[in-house]
Amino acid sequence: MAVSAGGHSTTGASGVRKFPTGANYAEALQHPELCFRDADLQRGTVRQVPVLGPKAISGNFASVFSLTTRDGQRYALKCFTRDASAMSSRYAAVSATLQALDVQSLSQPWPVDFSFLEQGVFALSKWYPLVKMAWAEGTELINWLDSHHHESATVQLLADRFLALVGDLNAHHIAHGDLQHGNILVASDCTIRLVDYDGMYVPGLDGEEATENGHRNYQSPRRTAADFGPAMDRFSAWLIHLSLTALAADPGLWSTFHVPDSEYLILSETDFKEPQYSTAWPTLLNHPEERVRALATKVHGFLPLVCAAIPPLTAATVPSPRAARSRRHTSNETASSGVAPPRPTMPPHPAWMAGHLPPPAPPVTTTCFSRRRPGDFVAAATALLSVSVPGLATATALQGEGALPFTQGLALLASASALSLGRRLRPEYRDARQRAGELQARAAVLSRQTKSAHQLAQEIAQLDATAAQEDTARNKRLQALQTELRDGLARKTIELNNSKRVLQQRIKDLPTKEKTLIKQASGPAVSAYVTSKLQAVPIERARSLHNMGDKTIRTLRAAGIRTAADFTGVVFTQNASYGNRVASLVLRSGKRVRIAGIGEARATALEDWRAGLERQARNGAPSTPTAQQLHQIRTEIAKERAKWEAQIQHAESSASRQQDQLRQRIADERQRLQSDQQRRVGEILRERADLLRQQALITDGNAEQVRTAAELTAVLRRKRSDLSFRKYVSFIMRGD
After folding, report:
1. Helix (H) or strand (E) run with residue 242 in it
2. Is the dihedral of CA 505, 511, 512, 517 positive or negative?
3. Rounded Cα gap, residues 701 and 690, in angstroms
């Protein structure tokens, strides 16, 4: 059971200690001098957001605030939103281990100073623990790669620095527990800082279980809480090193496989749990760069393994390129033997050409005619006979001498035809002609197939342009959603403040209204008191007024005015005939009477006399209503106050509900956009990979076309030289 600073239980009915929310901490941190016990923090300044107050970075079970002390030292303050009672001993062990490290022996200054304060922050009338960590200057890994992924040398440097960092952890039997982009900060000199030590393992924590299993996009599918130990970082380390090495070799992988605003590098949880559906693994496993292929093959083999079965990431266990080793081995052999290595054989034609090319004939091995055959002798005899026939015919007078030129021409033509036929019947010539025909057919097919290379390049460019346009449109939509959320929340806040201002003003007006009601409630009693006092004053007392004699008094009594209460005032009207004002006394019944002898002066004097008596009576009248009336008034005011306060609460809850609905709608829309983006990225990657495969095959076809053309040229040259008509005649005559 967790116990507060005062020794009182702070657990709820369920036995689980209740912790403040991020909003509760933000409210408390508005007054550092009150909410902290640490002297530096009390005099510090918490980073604020206009209107909203202290800015928090909320996580799974804590909110982090930035505070700067008077001397300029900046700290990250981790305030826990879930029970952290077991963290004190863990942080003590981690702190002791890290402080014992020889910083000079480390590859880089990755540890960050921190302290665990059991009574760190005062919120909701209780003390709660706090982690005070020196602020680490650097850029989160994903944000750093967004800016530098195209700088291959810099990314490779970071990969080497990360490998060295993991070496530091391995050498001291330390495991971070949550190696992921948010906890890896890259400093300006490309060194690394590690933050968030909540899940760190150090040798002093043997036998404990993990408090968390790390970020899902960086952890082995087989990791559990029981893996808490020096081996729990191994999969994450290999994965991050693979990602950095692949990006250093091929920066285009970032735009291909990393989704903006996502929480992974180029491989995510789905690639680990369902590798058979991954679009990234085939690219990495078949990458042209041997180092990437070898490293991807090794990491891919770790997917079914438990953490302890995965080897640690070290310079010795990282696979080196076989191609490089082969080149070095070949060079050494060449240098030692002095014999050049054999030339590599060219690959066969691509598989997509199968069925389109005639089967290759065996190459012709002879370079000229060999061993005369009967047909050669027949051709020679026919040629000689054809040449001698015209002369014999002329000698025997079978034809005239004038026909000799013509017959000799025919004879030479026949002789040449016989020799040409004999040449064509030679197996060497037939093989060469057949081979030339086959090569010409192959060249024609290859020519037709490779003409689509330009079209494929255009399709790939169009696909990339479409993907870029979709990304731009999607990013604009995401920005619009963010603006809509900000403006919507601000609008709801303004509407709520306006409504509350009106209702709060009504509540502020209630005391004035209560006084008015009390005054109104005491009105009848005051009127009755005033009337009784006026009734006690006979009209005869008006004799004290100027020019008010007994006759006038008798006239007043005759008109029914016997006391000061029998009339309420005087009304003057204008006499049209004489141009003077006529006075009429207003009786209690509201009736107006004109009394002889009562002119304007006497009427005014009577009115003033009565008004003075009424003022005296009112001054002495009771000002408080009865207890029942007072209770009724206060009950009415309390109901009205409760009504306005309920309307304020309703307005606040309604505004909060509407803001939550707006947030949820925006979040759903963002999730839909990201899901659509992931789906489209997968579709585009598959389509692009298919086009690239076709393009690669066409490239192979181009090489095959070059080889075929060269071979065809060689065959045709052989036909023209080694198997020429002249060579055949010489072969018949000489036999070689």
Report:
1. helix 234-249
2. positive
3. 16
